Amino acid sequence: MHMCTIVPISLTVGANRIVPTIAIPHPLGDPSLSMEEEKDIRRKLLSRALKALQTEVSEQTVFED
After folding, report:
1. For the whole prediction, is pTM greater than 0.85?
2. DSSP letters spanning 1-54
3. Annotated domain spans of the chain
4. S-S: 15 plus which of 10, 27, 56, 63, CB 3.0-4.6 Å?
């Protein structure tokens, strides 16, 4: 599984589960947000990643909202 900001790269390298993240310098958050908003973003990304790990896939799958 990849958590990444540039999905086409993960597709190229053959990752089977791909979770898009926020931005290259801050893939798992946004430092311009408040601490509470930052925690919310991280929880959503982590939840999406856990869902990806629990989901059976037979081909490359991008897990978006």
Report:
1. yes
2. -EEES-HHHHHHHT-SEEEE-S-SS-TT--TTS-HHHHHHHHHHHHHHHHHHHH
3. 2-62
4. 10
